[in-house]
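Researcher: Quick one. two chains, 975 residues in total.
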Amino acid sequence: MGSMKAAVIVFPGSNCDTDCFNVLKDVMRMDVSFVWHKERALPKVDLVILPGGFSYGDYLRTGAVARFSPAMESVIKHAGEGRLVLGICNGFQILLESGLLPGAMLRNESLSFVCEHVWLRVEETASVFTRNLKKGETICVPIAHGEGNYFCDDDTLKRLKDESRIAFRYASKSGQVTRDFNPNGSRENIAGIFNEKRNILGMMPHPERASEPVLGLDHGRKIFESLIGA
Amino acid sequence: MTTETQIKITPEMIASHGITEAEYQKIVKILGRDPNFTELGIFSVMWSEHCSYKNSRPVLKTFPTDGPNLLVRAGEENAGIVDIGDGLAICFKIESHNHPSAIEPFQGAATGVGGILRDIFTMGSRPILLMNSLRFGSLEQSSTKRLFRGVVSGIAHYGNCIGVPTIGGEVYFDDCYEGNPLVNAMALGLMKTDEIVKGKASGVGNPVYYVGASTGRDGLGGAAFASKELTEESHEDRPAVQVGDPFMEKLLMEACLELIKTDALVGMQDMGAAGLTCSTCETAARGSTGIEIDLKKVPLRESGMIPYEIMLSESQERMLIIAHKGKERKVEEIFEKWDLHAVKIGEVKEGSLMTVKSGGEIVAEIPAKALADDGPLYIREEKRPVYLEEAQKLDLAAVKIPSDFNTVLKKMLDHPSLASKAWVWKQYDHMVRTDTVFYPGHDAALIRIKGTKKGIAVSTDCNSLYCYLDPFEGGKIAVAESARNVVCSGARPLAITNCLNFGNPMKPEIFWQFHQAVNGMIASCKALGTPVTGGNVSLYNESPAAAIYPTPTVGMVGLLEDIEKRVPSFFQNEGDLVFLAGDTFEEIGGSHYLMIEHGLKKGLPPRLDLAKETQLHKFILDMAATGHLASCHDLSEGGLALALTEACFDPCGPKGVVVDQLDLAVRGSVREDALYFGESQSRAVLSVKPEHKEEVLKVASECGVPLYQIGCVTGNEIIIGDRIKLPVADAIAVYQSAIPKRMAR
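Model:
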């Protein structure tokens, strides 16, 4: 297989777009391009990244305006063809708002923005995003958000669990999933979920910020390594 | 209907604009006639202290501003620029937003961040780091909690949204800031040396563009507002506080940075203090040219605005751009892409006049240079304050040495000024841009420069208690300590920016403090080879009670040639040997120990020997270059005991320390409390692997630095001599809970 092709969608207010671009290009050696939100035509790529930030200033609800952008139409089509989409932080919020993933994001329980390293327990490894990880393993990845309190109704939660679509849960270093290790009040400590076909992953933590040793930890890199099948 | 040009100027009107009789006569002389109402407003903001530095400039001029790596010097542009090699340069600046934050903490602090960011990207550089230096009254006061919470969330709001990491800074709490908090925001940007943008207008006929947000009545006269003391009535000045929109600024920043890559740009200037007035006359003055604008073309967000208001508005997120004639479409296309206004409001003219029209009517016509550069200048009277006599006296015999040092240490860890600031910096996105190598909590913030091996270390610092007790020594120490912080991370100090926060300069005692502190800073800047690249002066920091302590905040920037040679502040390995570099004297005057344990803000602060300081820096940098320095942490407030304790608090895994050779660390006799908690200068705690012991001793002796092996990294307790024995976990619990527990109640 040739090198993986990826596109990073740039919304006005995206601010993790270059971070994602750099990791994919310089660390993972992928073939990456930026796609401006006004562009309707998406280049033929294997992976689309919806980066973190404050798309459109997040003035309505986080991610609520971005879903209507021309580029999102192409992303929905791309996803419908079974190709990969990774939404990180604000990107996850956009996936929720556009209905590609179920549930909603509420303000953090603390009502404050929180930026810190957290431990995640890997809940499901049968996906292109997590295949290089071990089930139950914990990884340390930063979060940085004011609205990362994942909420969904009971039926949705049941489906997510029955279909093993919870990718990551906030946990202790040793893998305990309790309230003490929940940084934002997310339901059942959910930090990331898949769609039914598991070609879409939305997660609040930022793996692109934890992919190089010089930045402290590189646990996030395992997600990108899974993607390229390294 | 009376138009503004017909409004008669009365003496009351002149006085209410903060213009003196002599200044008014100067205006008349410049114009050759009486000014109209709009012109009076324009002069009042441009000649306010905030814009003209009329009271401080004679002193500021004495700062060293030259250095081998300076591409743009202080005062020439919005911020100085320093070459860091590899075709790259950095520019940085610190600026105050004290008065707006006192009135409306959230917006005041947020727009402070927005303003300093514009100063940086207007030079053509991409902002890559934010820091801030904050001062509040006692955290036991509910009014302080409100201000503290508001300021921190305002900074977080702006910085997080725009996507520039806020990598800490400093926060202090002291009664002297009650009612007059200090909010100093610093930004640093990175650029290619061939992409420096000047804030000047040139080329007659070149179009002048207004870009960014529309103009409203917010912040009307903000610069004049910042140049007077806060009074009980200041809260009625609320319209003078601007409202920030970080999303708008993000778009503006991206559009401006895109524009500098084209050949369409001549000059660029942000509209900060004094908005359209300042940017128009300064660009013309720098370019030695004339400029003409038409206010009818300015995008407005409120109806019925008169020229006076449009010229003086401090609405945020706006820039003035001078483009090359014939390249107009290029400019407009970029701003269209980002959905921003880009309106041609005028052009560069022959001559030297700033001409402001409203449709066909000329509403102001002033020589640009006279307005921007020829403002009044005052040599203020100075007088040594009488309080010093009493304040500097300290009867050591009357200061009882406490029986239990564990309790003292815990008390200090629990003091909000010394405790963990995680409550603050966890609200800041300090990692966005994926360059942050050292997080807040280290001596200096450290970021890498992608595509190179380099790193940039930044520290902000000022011990205002020292400055209160001895402004000269305090100013010296502010520079030296910020340099020491940068050095401890392994980086070589390059240059400083400063934010000089003082009281009312009309009071001779205040001006004396100001001049002394600047002289002290100059002494250190010269000795350490770190010129001043610019900064900001904030005077009139007085609440109804009294003036603040003199607070000349220093932002020190250093270069680390090889990021792999960085040195953390925390102990790294079990079994490493712990050393104290530098000598300890019987110095407890002005110390936090004296203040916290004995309730005294008295005595002479520690003396700084610049020769010793320079030697210490050379030793640490030489040692860092070997790659064998496991950790290095400077000694400051709380002295040796606090430095050793903090060095145990590695967020990646705390360590313990046993210091069993403390008696060997002093020559002669020193009081026990001075040994543990005194704040003698030019000292650092470092650790190395046992096999590097000979090497570190050799390098120290070559550099002439006294180095004492005092213990080793081991266990899970902090054991210092026979006076301190505390489980690390207990110390961390106190340190981390001090601020959250106060903010929770």
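The mean pLDDT of chain A is 95.
Researcher: Thanks, that's what I needed.
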